[in-house]
Amino acid sequence: MQAFIESLVASHQHQPTHLLAILRAIQAQAHYIPEAAIKQVATLLNIPRSHIIGVIEFYSFLHLTPQGQYEILISDSITDQMLGKNELMAYLSEQLHVAVGAVRGDGLVSLNITSCTGLCDQGPAGLVNGYALSRLSRARIDQIAALVEQQTPVAEWPSELFQVEDNIIQTDLLLTTPIESGSALKASYARGLAETLAEIDRAGLRGRGGAGFKTASKWQYCKDEAGPERYVVCNADEGEPGTFKDRVLLNTYAQQVFEGMTICAAIIGAEQGFLYLRGEYLFLYDKLLQIVDERRQAGLLGNNILNSGLQFDIEICLGAGAYICGEESALIESLEGKMGIPRNRPPYPVSQGYLQKPTVVNNVETFLAAAHIAVHGGDAFAQIGTAQSKGTKILSISGDCTRPGIYELPFGTTIHAVLAACGAEDVLGVQIGGPSGTFISNTEFDRRLAFEDLATGGSFIIFNHSRQLLDIAQNFTHFFAHESCGFCTPCRVGTSLLKKQLDKIVDGHGSAGDVAELEALCQIVKNHSHCGLGQTAANPILSTLERYPELYQSRLKAISYEPGFDLDAALATARRLANRNDAAAHLAQVEDSL
User: Fold this and answer.
1) Over residues 424-432, mean pLDDT
2) Is 549 helix (H, G, I), strand (E, B) or coil?
3) Are residues 305 and 225 in the same domain?
4) pLDDT at 579 over 90
5) How many independent structural domains does the chain possess?
6) Is the pLDDT of residue 52 over 90?
7) Among residues 328, 332, 334, 265, which one has the least CA distance to residue 295?
8) From the CB of residue 338, how many other CB atoms can be counted at a distance below 10 Å?
9) What's the burial of 228, exposed, middle or buried (CB within 10 Å: 0-12/13-18/19+)?
10) Which of 357, 372, 443, 450 is paired with 57 by a 20 to 30 Å CA distance?
11) What pLDDT shows up at residue 593?
């Protein structure tokens, strides 16, 4: 192990920024990070041992204690639960003779749950030693259990267990005709880099991660920053449950994504780029490395690209199971070999990003669209969509429909049209934008996909009338409590309290006063959290409480129905309390009362 670590750290040029990659490699070798390895890495990288331990404890795919030789994780996403995940998990536990959350006595196998694996259209899904398992069934679990008992190396398992399909159902502007490799760069230089940025501005391209900031403005701000050193980062950490479009784009359209990154580099003057790939997409890692190498061989990356004088290269970096790293500043912290704790903003990444240098961070779909605009111009792109939302949106559709998968639709498309396209019937509601987004009921299907109405990073989960909405809200609330980075008290404590308070009500042990207290907690977490995770963690509760208050009332104890009790008045009082200056003290008071 000592020789392995010495060689490993040397291969990463003894760079502390590569700590996460080094720890992932040790984890893969030993199935945990031994104390001796921590000390050795600390010495070789000249960083504190405490820093390394903090990083290990932060990422859910890294461990300080031994895991099984076969580490199996099953996705606990709501879409997996809808497909029978709980029953399959119990069956897998029985077949492997190991409890959920435990390592078997002989050390051969461990079993646990994980958050969404990005396979919502082909679940129930899981991971074995980091590699995706799709469409799990009892028959497949029998097969997996036999392979484990026979100690067959994962590399020799049948390929059908790892089969992940693109599942593209409907294409439009971007996906129908992918651009030829190199064509966007050639068009950009032929037109002029300043003119290409103007075309992106004319196209009205806005960031496709959900926030919708103007892409051309972001690139211009970064370009205008003082100093010679700049970076380009592609955010491929799509951890929002229900989202899997980036998985498909990187599997089939990666050349175009890399082309978009390179155009950005040429425009802003960057020489280094990073694609931050979520750890659950380990199965794409080698393929992306190969594509990057092919682009180097073709003169599309590296020195003097297309004889233009441009020097730019791309590094593929793997995450390690932290939803919060989808937030751009947390992602940058992770790229630097740290815990993925969001930074205070301002300053924004365009002025102080990676290594405190000006940095553009866009997601996969944004770079894909930028390359398309570079070839075809901005006018054709801008003709599609709405006044404030130009072009198309790529949706990841899952849940209760006959045709789950990838759909590219023009902005402005109604929810009615989306549901008709994917074969959804008897729909109760739709969760748009994942747990952090918006739940809309079946009275709101005339609303449209657009930044000015229903903005989304791409997640579109459908629920029919057989589903229990409070169970859905409970799943989402547990997800946020698990994924909180723990940096700030309102989120660290608040999401845990939200989980406990909602569980109490859903399990039938709550009173009307508990619903009022739940509302107060929601407002505290929403209004006082440090970053977007905490600020949106209460959305599943707030949206269902607003639309279906009777569901909460139906779960309350009989004592709740005292004459003269006004639930609406109690909720209004709770909102006022939640916005007091002593929000942290109120949290502590609630925690003591539970």
Assistant:
1) 96
2) helix
3) yes
4) no
5) 5
6) yes
7) 265
8) 18
9) exposed
10) 357
11) 52
**Which tokens hold the place of 452?**
């000015």
Asked if the peptide bond before residue 346 counts as cis, ω within 30 degrees of 0, the response is yes
Whether 479 and 455 map to the same domain: the answer is no
Cβ pair 167, 248 in contact under 8 A: yes
* Helix pair 254-268, 193-203: axis angle to 10 deg: 120
Rg (CA), the chain: 24
d(CA 188, CA 266) in angstroms, rounded, equals: 9
Q: What is the mean pLDDT of the chain?
A: 93
Do strands 131-133 and 168-170 pair parallel, antiparallel, or not at all (unpaired)?
unpaired
Q: Is 235 inside any structural domain?
A: yes
Whether residues 441 and 525 share a domain: the answer is: no
For residue 256, what are the contacts with CB-CB under 8 A and spacing of at least 6? 178, 179, 181, 184, 367, 368, 371, 372
How high is the pLDDT of residue 163? 97
CA pair distance 526, 538, nearest whole angstrom: 6
Strand locations in 364-479 (E): 392-399, 405-410, 427-432, 438-441, 459-464
Q: Both tokens of residue 527?
A: 């209004």
Q: Which of 333, 348, 382 is the last residue of a domain?
A: 382
Give the bridge partners for 408, in sequence order.
394
Any domain includes 413: yes
Tell me the C-alpha distance between 1 and 58, whole Å.
23
CB atoms within 10 A of CB 410: 20
Distance CA 114, CA 85 (A): 12
Distance between CA atoms of 470 and 473, rounded to whole angstroms?
5
464, β-bridge pairs: 427
Which residues face 258 on adjacent strands?
none
| Lowest-pLDDT choice from 376-390, 409-423, 467-481, 507-521 | 507-521
Q: Any bridge partners for residue 488, and if so which?
A: none
What CA–CA distance (Å, rounded) separates 239 from 115?
Answer: 8
* Same domain? 456 vs 509: no
Residue 402 and residue 37: Cα distance in Å, rounded?
A: 49
CA–CA dist 149, 382 (Å, integer): 57
Q: Which two tokens stand for residue 305?
A: 């690209």
- Kindly state whether residue 164 falls inside one of the protein's structural domains: no
First to last CA, the chain: 47
Distance CA 32, CA 98 (A): 18
Q: Has residue 561 got a pLDDT over 50?
A: no
Domain assignment of residue 429, given as a range: 392-464
pLDDT of residue 512: 83
Q: Residue 525: which CATH number?
A: 1.20.1440.230
- The token pair at 494 is 């608040």
Give phi and psi for 158, each to the nearest 5. Answer: -55, 135
DSSP3 helix / strand / coil % (the chain, rounded to 5) = 50, 15, 35
More confident residue, 578 or 429: 429
For 532-550, how does the pLDDT look when each residue is reduced to its tens digit (9 = 90+)?
999 999 999 998 888 888 9
The number of angstroms, rounded, from the C-alpha of 431 to the middle of its chain's C-alpha atoms is: 16
* Cis peptide upstream of residue 347 (ω within 30 degrees of 0): yes
